[in-house]
Specification:
With 466 residues, the chain is mainly β. The chain is 8% helix and 17% strand.
Length: 466
């Protein structure tokens, strides 16, 4: 009798356990048991599809595409250097080069020389040059340019006896290794040129018996440069200049004046050497100052006035239409953030009751967020002649910070949208909007006035300095 009771109780217990483990509701223990068997690491990815079946990695990231997820891959980028000692874990760099020794490999370091200027816009990416000086304007910074003054003579290592002043002739009258154009004592007599009564003939005693301002050592050379102007009245006595041109009126002829326009900026550094422009403003950064630039044009591109928001290095795009807008559309918005600056997205608004927008967000932490003031520049196709003003009236440029609107050209008191010509692209313009607030995303919205432009091609959304 007792054995029968025990058997019955055992059957009941088994039934209870099986029932508890096989309940068919959505939160059943039975479902959990089956899931644990098929998902060893419980990360939500079935083992047969999990690239790290025994290590939790729900995002399934596999940087080097070798089928082994980063969570369990000892060499995430597949460059042959184990992650534990790799200075760029997710960027292949088998050489492990680290130019400035900051522990971040060059392959993933946005500032390889650690000078505070990002490589994308650094004219010496591997040599520190914080001020980005480029004396000869060749796009190679002075700190890494073998010929900083652009005279065709290498500086260092090299034979240039005036490395910061162009002097292709390499004349050196006193043979002291310093070229005449940068030597403050050309004749080497110990008397500086600007007070030497014979700057090109050694006369350390400065004797001048007749008191005519020319030392005895060089007196009698009435026309030293042979230009027909007596030395006593020649504003460049040793360089021919028969017309005696002297633009800034300092009594130093233009051909021998190191600051022809008298604005305090030496000719070699002056972006308008014959037009005074002490502030050296160069709106389009083409090396020609605004006061003498016949056509101020700007560009959007790597290292240009505006930098495009692109993926890579990191960007997302969103677009859409608003309002009662039959036939409205936004096409190919991804073209706005790709690296090809010659393709575009298109906003089409055939009626006047709606609008369309394209929004680009910079997700690259090396750049974003942008701390104001900045300038947003949207590259668009130039509309038909005479409609630029109407286009401006139908465009709004907005900025956003973490999803919330920061500024808008539509706000009262905000800056206006200004059209600027694009260098080398006569059919395009940049719609420029100055900002003051921090932002990580910029957006263009386009609406339509009946009978005018109904579509707008957007090539890139860019950000530049004020």
């Amino acid at each position: 009798m007792r054995s029968g009771v025990r058997a019955l109780l055992a059957l009941v217990a088994v039934g209870f356990v099986l029932g508890a483990g096989c309940a068919d509701d959505s939160g059943s223990r039975g479902a959990t048991l089956v899931s644990n068997v098929n998902d060893m690491d419980s990360d939500g990815d079935p083992d047969d599809a999990d690239n790290c079946p025994s290590v939790d990695n729900p995002d399934q990231i596999d940087t080097d595409g070798d089928g082994l997820g980063d969570a369990c891959d000892s060499d995430d980028d597949g460059d042959g250097v184990l992650d534990v000692s790799d200075n760029c874990r997710t960027n292949p760099n088998p050489s492990q080069n680290d130019n400035e020794g900051d522990g971040i490999g060059d392959a993933c370091d946005h500032d390889d020389d650690n000078d505070g200027v990002l490589d994308a816009v650094d004219n010496c990416p591997f040599t520190p040059n914080i001020n980005q000086a480029d004396r000869d304007g060749d796009g190679i910074g002075d700190a890494c340019d073998p010929d900083a003054d652009g005279d065709g003579i290498d500086d260092n290592p090299g034979p240039d006896n005036c490395p910061t002043t162009p002097n292709a002739s390499q004349n050196d009258l006193d043979g002291d290794g310093i070229g005449d154009v940068c030597d403050d004592d050309v004749d080497g007599d110990g008397v500086l040129n600007d007070i030497d009564n014979c700057p090109f003939v050694a006369n350390p005693g400065q004797e001048d018996d007749d008191g005519d301002g020319f030392g005895n050592a060089c007196d009698g050379f009435t026309d030293s440069d042979g230009d027909g102007i007596p030395d006593a009245g020649d504003n460049c006595p040793f360089i021919p200049n028969a017309d005696q041109a002297d633009q800034d009126g300092d009594n130093v002829g233009d051909v021998c004046d190191d600051d022809v326009d008298g604005d305090g900026v030496p000719n070699v550094d002056d972006n308008c050497p014959v037009d005074p422009n002490a502030d050296q403003i160069d709106e389009d950064r083409d090396g020609i100052g605004d006061v003498c630039d016949p056509e101020i044009l700007v560009e959007c591109g790597r290292g240009k006035f505006y930098e495009p928001i692109t993926e890579p290095p990191g960007a997302t795009v969103a677009s859409g239409t608003t309002g009662l807008c039959l036939g409205c559309s936004v096409a190919s918005d991804g073209n706005v953030i790709d690296e090809n600056l010659d393709n575009s997205g298109r906003i089409t608004i055939p009626v006047a009751t709606g609008s369309g927008f394209i929004n680009a967000t910079n997700t690259d932490p090396a750049v974003a967020p942008y701390v104001g003031p900045k300038r947003v520049g949207v590259v668009v196709e130039r509309p038909s002649s005479g409609l630029v003003v109407n286009l401006i009236q139908n465009v709004t440029i907005n900025t956003y910070s973490m999803g919330s609107q920061a500024e808008s050209s539509a706000d009262v008191g905000a800056g206006t949208v200004v059209p600027i010509g694009v260098a080398g692209q006569p059919n395009r313009i940049i719609l420029d909007f100055e900002t003051t607030e921090t932002f990580d995303a910029a957006e263009i919205r386009f609406s339509n006035t009946v009978g005018l432009q109904q579509a707008l091609d957007v090539y890139a959304i860019c950000v530049g300095e004020p």
